[in-house]
Design goal:
The protein has helices spanning 2-6, 32-49, and strands at residues 54-58, 61-64, 67-69, 83-86, 91-93, 109-116, 134-136, 142-148, 154-159, 161-167, 173-179. It is α+β, with helices and mostly antiparallel strands. Strand 10 (161-167) and strand 11 form a beta hairpin. The mean pLDDT is 83.
Amino acid sequence: DAWLDELKILKTEDFTNGKIDWNSTTMVVSGNAERYYFLREKLKTFAQTRNQPVLVWKCPVSTGKGSYQIPKFNPENKFNAIIKYFVRGAKCVLTKSIQTRIGVGKGSSAILVDVVWKDAENVVNVDALAPGTITEVVQPDYLVIKVNAGKQESRMVCLTIDRRSFDDLNGTARGYKAHQ
Protein backbone atom coordinates (compact mmCIF):
# COMPACT_ATOMS: atom_id res chain seq x y z
CA ASP A 1 0.00 0.00 0.00
CA ALA A 2 2.99 2.33 0.31
CA TRP A 3 3.20 2.65 -3.48
CA LEU A 4 -0.39 3.91 -3.51
CA ASP A 5 0.59 6.78 -1.21
CA GLU A 6 3.24 7.83 -3.73
CA LEU A 7 0.75 8.25 -6.59
CA LYS A 8 -0.11 11.81 -7.54
CA ILE A 9 -3.61 13.13 -8.16
CA LEU A 10 -4.10 14.25 -11.74
CA LYS A 11 -5.04 17.88 -12.33
CA THR A 12 -6.43 19.68 -15.38
CA GLU A 13 -3.01 21.10 -16.29
CA ASP A 14 -1.59 17.56 -16.43
CA PHE A 15 -3.62 16.97 -19.59
CA THR A 16 -1.74 19.72 -21.41
CA ASN A 17 1.62 18.14 -20.58
CA GLY A 18 3.17 17.43 -23.98
CA LYS A 19 5.23 14.54 -22.57
CA ILE A 20 2.20 12.22 -22.28
CA ASP A 21 -0.19 11.17 -25.06
CA TRP A 22 -3.42 11.15 -23.04
CA ASN A 23 -5.45 10.01 -26.06
CA SER A 24 -3.80 6.59 -25.95
CA THR A 25 -3.29 6.32 -22.19
CA THR A 26 -5.25 3.79 -20.18
CA MET A 27 -6.42 5.13 -16.85
CA VAL A 28 -8.02 3.49 -13.85
CA VAL A 29 -10.37 5.59 -11.75
CA SER A 30 -12.26 5.02 -8.53
CA GLY A 31 -15.70 5.96 -9.86
CA ASN A 32 -17.83 7.33 -12.68
CA ALA A 33 -17.47 10.96 -11.56
CA GLU A 34 -13.70 10.73 -12.06
CA ARG A 35 -14.12 8.86 -15.35
CA TYR A 36 -16.37 11.57 -16.79
CA TYR A 37 -14.05 14.30 -15.51
CA PHE A 38 -11.05 12.74 -17.25
CA LEU A 39 -13.02 12.17 -20.46
CA ARG A 40 -14.16 15.81 -20.49
CA GLU A 41 -10.60 17.08 -19.91
CA LYS A 42 -9.17 14.74 -22.55
CA LEU A 43 -11.82 15.91 -25.03
CA LYS A 44 -10.95 19.57 -24.45
CA THR A 45 -7.25 18.85 -24.97
CA PHE A 46 -7.99 16.73 -28.04
CA ALA A 47 -10.17 19.49 -29.49
CA GLN A 48 -7.46 22.14 -28.96
CA THR A 49 -4.75 20.04 -30.59
CA ARG A 50 -7.05 19.28 -33.58
CA ASN A 51 -8.37 22.88 -33.89
CA GLN A 52 -11.93 21.70 -33.26
CA PRO A 53 -14.67 22.99 -30.95
CA VAL A 54 -16.42 20.82 -28.35
CA LEU A 55 -20.20 20.43 -28.55
CA VAL A 56 -22.11 19.39 -25.44
CA TRP A 57 -25.78 18.62 -24.89
CA LYS A 58 -28.09 17.23 -22.26
CA CYS A 59 -30.20 14.28 -23.34
CA PRO A 60 -33.97 14.47 -22.83
CA VAL A 61 -35.12 12.45 -19.81
CA SER A 62 -38.42 10.58 -19.50
CA THR A 63 -41.13 12.43 -17.60
CA GLY A 64 -43.51 9.47 -17.94
CA LYS A 65 -46.05 8.26 -20.51
CA GLY A 66 -43.67 8.56 -23.47
CA SER A 67 -42.82 12.20 -22.83
CA TYR A 68 -39.22 13.45 -22.65
CA GLN A 69 -37.73 16.82 -21.70
CA ILE A 70 -34.33 18.37 -21.03
CA PRO A 71 -33.64 18.40 -17.26
CA LYS A 72 -34.09 21.80 -15.62
CA PHE A 73 -31.29 20.99 -13.15
CA ASN A 74 -27.56 20.64 -13.83
CA PRO A 75 -26.96 16.88 -14.18
CA GLU A 76 -23.15 17.21 -14.01
CA ASN A 77 -21.51 15.03 -11.34
CA LYS A 78 -24.84 13.37 -10.53
CA PHE A 79 -26.14 12.04 -13.85
CA ASN A 80 -23.14 12.32 -16.17
CA ALA A 81 -24.59 9.63 -18.46
CA ILE A 82 -27.11 12.12 -19.87
CA ILE A 83 -24.43 14.68 -20.81
CA LYS A 84 -22.91 14.00 -24.23
CA TYR A 85 -19.90 15.53 -25.98
CA PHE A 86 -18.87 15.73 -29.63
CA VAL A 87 -15.51 16.61 -31.17
CA ARG A 88 -14.82 15.95 -34.84
CA GLY A 89 -12.15 13.31 -35.21
CA ALA A 90 -12.55 11.86 -31.69
CA LYS A 91 -12.61 8.09 -31.37
CA CYS A 92 -15.68 6.30 -30.10
CA VAL A 93 -16.93 2.74 -29.68
CA LEU A 94 -20.40 1.59 -30.74
CA THR A 95 -22.57 0.47 -27.84
CA LYS A 96 -25.16 -1.19 -30.07
CA SER A 97 -25.02 -3.33 -33.21
CA ILE A 98 -26.11 -1.51 -36.36
CA GLN A 99 -25.32 -3.83 -39.29
CA THR A 100 -23.29 -6.84 -38.18
CA ARG A 101 -23.23 -8.44 -41.64
CA ILE A 102 -21.21 -5.48 -42.97
CA GLY A 103 -19.02 -5.27 -39.87
CA VAL A 104 -20.76 -2.45 -37.98
CA GLY A 105 -21.49 -4.10 -34.65
CA LYS A 106 -21.36 -3.46 -30.94
CA GLY A 107 -17.77 -2.78 -29.90
CA SER A 108 -16.73 -1.47 -33.34
CA SER A 109 -14.34 1.45 -33.23
CA ALA A 110 -15.32 4.61 -35.06
CA ILE A 111 -14.46 8.27 -35.49
CA LEU A 112 -16.92 11.15 -34.96
CA VAL A 113 -17.41 13.04 -38.23
CA ASP A 114 -20.40 15.38 -38.03
CA VAL A 115 -23.68 16.31 -36.32
CA VAL A 116 -27.03 16.84 -38.07
CA TRP A 117 -30.20 18.59 -36.92
CA LYS A 118 -33.59 18.30 -38.66
CA ASP A 119 -34.84 21.71 -37.46
CA ALA A 120 -33.05 24.69 -39.00
CA GLU A 121 -33.42 26.66 -35.73
CA ASN A 122 -31.17 24.12 -33.94
CA VAL A 123 -28.38 24.00 -36.54
CA VAL A 124 -24.99 25.17 -35.32
CA ASN A 125 -22.21 26.12 -37.73
CA VAL A 126 -19.50 23.99 -36.11
CA ASP A 127 -16.85 25.46 -38.45
CA ALA A 128 -17.53 28.96 -37.05
CA LEU A 129 -16.86 27.95 -33.42
CA ALA A 130 -13.49 28.65 -31.80
CA PRO A 131 -11.22 25.61 -31.36
CA GLY A 132 -11.20 24.14 -27.87
CA THR A 133 -14.29 26.05 -26.74
CA ILE A 134 -17.25 24.18 -25.27
CA THR A 135 -20.59 25.13 -26.80
CA GLU A 136 -23.89 23.82 -25.46
CA VAL A 137 -26.28 22.80 -28.24
CA VAL A 138 -29.63 21.09 -28.68
CA GLN A 139 -29.18 17.33 -29.00
CA PRO A 140 -28.48 16.57 -32.67
CA ASP A 141 -30.91 14.27 -34.47
CA TYR A 142 -28.02 12.30 -36.00
CA LEU A 143 -24.33 11.71 -35.42
CA VAL A 144 -22.29 10.85 -38.50
CA ILE A 145 -19.46 8.45 -37.78
CA LYS A 146 -16.81 6.64 -39.80
CA VAL A 147 -16.69 2.98 -38.74
CA ASN A 148 -13.81 0.62 -39.37
CA ALA A 149 -15.76 -2.22 -41.03
CA GLY A 150 -12.93 -4.45 -42.20
CA LYS A 151 -9.24 -4.77 -42.86
CA GLN A 152 -9.01 -1.66 -45.02
CA GLU A 153 -12.66 -0.76 -45.31
CA SER A 154 -14.58 1.95 -43.52
CA ARG A 155 -18.19 3.08 -43.74
CA MET A 156 -19.98 6.33 -42.99
CA VAL A 157 -22.96 5.66 -40.71
CA CYS A 158 -25.65 7.91 -39.20
CA LEU A 159 -26.50 7.15 -35.61
CA THR A 160 -30.08 7.85 -34.64
CA ILE A 161 -31.46 8.63 -31.19
CA ASP A 162 -32.33 5.59 -29.12
CA ARG A 163 -33.82 5.01 -25.66
CA ARG A 164 -31.32 4.40 -22.84
CA SER A 165 -31.59 4.35 -19.07
CA PHE A 166 -29.72 5.53 -15.98
CA ASP A 167 -30.37 5.18 -12.26
CA ASP A 168 -31.56 8.29 -10.45
CA LEU A 169 -30.59 9.17 -6.85
CA ASN A 170 -33.25 6.77 -5.55
CA GLY A 171 -31.84 3.90 -7.62
CA THR A 172 -34.82 3.98 -9.97
CA ALA A 173 -34.12 3.37 -13.66
CA ARG A 174 -35.02 6.47 -15.69
CA GLY A 175 -35.24 6.56 -19.45
CA TYR A 176 -33.40 9.07 -21.62
CA LYS A 177 -32.76 9.51 -25.32
CA ALA A 178 -29.23 9.30 -26.70
CA HIS A 179 -27.40 8.15 -29.81
CA GLN A 180 -26.42 4.50 -30.17
